[in-house]
Fold this protein.
Amino acid sequence: MTGDLLRGLLKGALGPARNDSRYLLDVHSRQLPGEGTMRRYADSDEVDLVIVGAGAGGSVLAQRLARHGWRIVMLEAGPFWHPDDDWVSDEAGSHHLYWTQKRIIGGADPIELGKNNSGRGVGGSMIHYAGYCPRFHPSDLRTATLDGVGADWPVSYAELRPHYERVERELPVAGQDWPWGYPHRYPFSPHPVSGAAARIWEGALKLGIGMRAGPVGIVNGTFGNRPHCIYRGYCLQGCKVNAKASPYVTHLPDALAHGVEIRADCMAARVELDEATGKADGVVYFDEIGGAERRQRARFVALAGYSIETPRLLLNSVSRRFPRGLCNNEDQVGRYIMVQGASQTAGRFPDELRMYKAPPPEVSSEQFYETDPARGFARGFSIQTVAPLPIAWAEHVLADGHWGRALREYMRDYNHWTTVGVLNELLPQPGNRITIAGEADPYGIPVARMDYSLCDNDKANVEYSTRLITDILHAAGAQDVLTIRRYAHLVGGARMGSSPDDSVIDASQRAWAVPNLFLADGSVCPTQGSANPALTIMALASRLAERMASGAAMDDDPAARAGTAGGGRRRR
Amino acid sequence: MPDFRDPGHLPNLRPERQPPHPSWLPRQRRGTTPQMIGRYPDYDVLEAAGSWDEATRRVVLGRLGRPGPLRFFSLEEEPALRAFCDTVLAQDGEPRVPVAEFVDGKLADGRLDGYQYADMPDDRDTWRLVLRGLDEVARSRYGKDGFAAAEPATREAIVGQLASGQLAGGVWDKLNASRAWSVCMRAVLAGFYSHPWAWNEIGFGGPAYPRGFMRLGPLSTTEPFETHGATSEDPGRVAEGGQP
């Protein structure tokens, strides 16, 4: 009783330690403070660390290590945002936030990229993610042992948990006390639930499905100089309010204040290898299309370009030691890339619900997250409310087979609809992979090809979950439903493991094949659960930074490199 | 009398999945909607433009300028392009949202979407092939002088076959029709539903920074500047039980 009272009083009052980003931000402007006075390094300076990619993983790694005095340069392919001028409350006007350079998609179930899952620019994809910040469950890290599918991580949940807690305080995450996975609380109280999301919650309750408000990385209250959310609904177009968490507001202000240089509009072409020592000695990049190659020297190299660009960069880094691409002598780079099934179903109600108000992410359930043999497939899915704006809603209506007059009729009915989606845990498969396509981008760098095919378990999961959310809407009293089959998120592609035979990096996210090369993004995940990946990518980068700072990540002891699942600690 | 609480106008609940003719809808009384029909006859999102931030205002109001001229598509392709955009969006009269110009600008500037199916050409080539393919089908199967020259029912029949992946012969033996359909519709839908006239038609609140939204429901979902869905019948006659 007293404990609950105390926790209630402290909600929203406790900030994170060793990260001043929230105070460094300007109350009256949305620009990243410190850009003008940012420390600059010369290409010829051997910095301590060069990081490719200023997104969720790279930014956390930079902020942490800068606090330990590391001299760091970040190379970011996209622009240095000035949100007051660059971002708009508009769907079509936000096209420049996405990675829209060409990629080839193939396989039996090609995955649409671009605005669906790929960011570009300082802050990465979290600039336009919805804001859901769930943790992975402990079971996600042991699916091979528990369910006979996927892979076990070389990292335990106990190792990850303090970093989850730390990042949740930094974002900060708002939500109800969380009963699923490893039960936990959130630093900020849940946001109010909109009328549109409440309809879905009612339907779920009628079917005996528990849902909870959150978890979202959106300020509920004030947080340093970051204001309260204004519920305008444009989370996926970049938060002009500074209420939604992204590295741009949560980690990069502190990183700049501690001497990190972010070199924007710089496209990495390859990691340079010292053929004599076998170590990476820098990154070659272009600072303009058609420009001369530049090379940043560094003691350590970390790649954080996400599940497509990180493998692409490795595969394009060909040398005498690595004729098939860096770290790819075992043919593991690019394999086991994963997306989540993300079907959405919308329901029609008599009242005007106006789902465009309030953040699109509101209420979610992880009740179906783990394997239930009665469902006939391994692993599971989560359920989350969403709220498409008009263009996304038009794509939803089209996917149900309507165009012309029928499309216009459904569109005019927009205000009467509410939408719920799923995230399916699709299983990692070696054939789902990134390779290099036969054409080059405007820099002259060969582009990536992504092949994806669903397995039978994936298909069964998608079918079951899509039926379930439709049932939820019917239970809520929906007068009509419309369904879109789609995919979301990316992880995997250069996974960690206990052996170089079936992974690219070790338990410390250090490349098996190159002793001073680390991967610090979502590509390292061996499985994905049915949680949105942003928080886990940040937590992994936070753990990596801790281990790099202490030197533990450079430990060459084979048992240490193999992690919890390897060596004498293997539990069978 | 139309009642928006009732879903009877929704295509899935009607024979052949087709909506009623739009003549049941009220004429727009305030602001502009495509073809001057909509469900919110007294709502004009542009009246709130003064409360938008400068960057957003510039982008959205920029769409109201004089459209064109076409830069990507040729004079020969223009009729099929316009006929396709009109048909798939049921824009059968003025005022029209200039979707053809939106698509043209996107392709001319190379603002593509970041992915290309392995069995498909570049999006720009896909568009050209689709327009050529529509003309071919109109000529060979319907004896018309091109897709644009066909009457609306024929155009709808051809587009229906494209949407369901049933077109074959000529261009369509080389092009995956259902993927081509999704490439084209992505651009068309973004063009139409990014226009403030379309927001008026559907009663969308539009940009809301820095003002924000306050009425999230469940008690009310309507801000003071928004209006409820409405119809145009004479309330006096409805009260007397007569037909509007």
Chain B touches chain A through 72 residues (CB under 8 Å). Chain B has two domains: 22-65+206-239, 78-192.
